[in-house]
Amino acid sequence: MNIKKYNLNDLKYFIFPLLVLGLMAVSFFLLLWPKVIQIKEARSIIKNQETKLGRLTEKLASLKGLNETELTDRSELVLRALPESKQPMLAMSVLRHISQETGIEVKKIDVRPGELATLSAKVKNQVPSLDFSVKVTGLENQIGDFMEKLSKSLPLLRAEKISLSFGPQSLELTMDIASYYSFLPVSLGKIDTLPGILSQDEKEAYKKLENFSFPSTFSEEWLPALDAGRPNPFI
Amino acid sequence: MKKEINLLKSKQEKESDSGLIPLVKSLSLVLILVYVLSLIGIYSFGFYVSQKEKEILIEIDQKERQIKKAARLESLQLTVKSRLNALAWVFGKEKKAVGLVEAWRRLGNVAADKVTLASVVIDNFGETVSLRGSAERMIDLIDFFQRVKESSGEKDGFNDLLLTSLTKGNEGYKFNLELKVSS
Which residues of chain B lie closer than 8 angstroms to A20, CB-CB? Predict the structure, then answer.
């Protein structure tokens, strides 16, 4: 059997390629692979950022499409319809104003303020309300006018129950009224969340609301003056 | 002769070795070249990616600033939307019900002279109506019921008439009637 004998001098030619391969393997794990991972991560981040940028562009475009004057008018009207908190005095003042306009006699107003309404308080309805009942007397057409005006006045007052007793000359009307209110939004939400577009129901609600009126001669003087806060001792 | 053969063999082996070594050398050079090129390519691509990331972040920042500037508009829109949503709910409660004012006026008209209404109670946003009244003659009462029932053919008319009580006294017939408003 002929065994080939290699000289060590012959192997020196393979040292360089082996060294190159070794260095390549080491540098691959030290330089190339981390960079590839980094690029991969960066690309996924870019993808997310591009989506976010798209949403931001869309939001900016929709915000630019909003008319500030129109929005201010709308918000004034809706805030008159739905105050930000329970307003028993305002509701009662509106009642008093309408009763004076129609000439009916208010016999009794029973307000049930209920629990203090805070944002954390649970409300039984989707829209919280201050409930009260009112008893008035008057002629049939006066009562009719009273109810008509009440149903079209702001803040939004809604009769939930009506009891009419027919007397010999006049009518006695007892109404359970809900005076609705709604808290102001506390935050604007995420920056890339689109501002909501009005739905069909909301547009219809606004159309309806345009026919409502804040009592024409209604002003601060209708509101009873209440002392509030600590008096200034220096005056 | 044998010596010559061995010399020839070793010469042949040397020749084959000298052919393998340049091949290995050139292959390793090619490998180095490819590796260096890929290193440059990947690093420059990485640079491009990081530049693009920076550009997008700058653009996002600009857009966010612009959106923050328009925060008043957004808050107005949010206020309007949330309130109109609440109002739509309140108005929606009335959708199935006849208008409260209209309801009792119509009943008053239907009652006419021969039937006296003592009370009308309209509940559940006008979905149910309770009537209490009296009539001297039974025929007038039947006529009244008939006319109330006929009004159910109208839009938002009454249906499901339920006579809960009917008593005869000295002054005539006293009745309690419950109505449901059609949706």
Answer: 28, 31-32
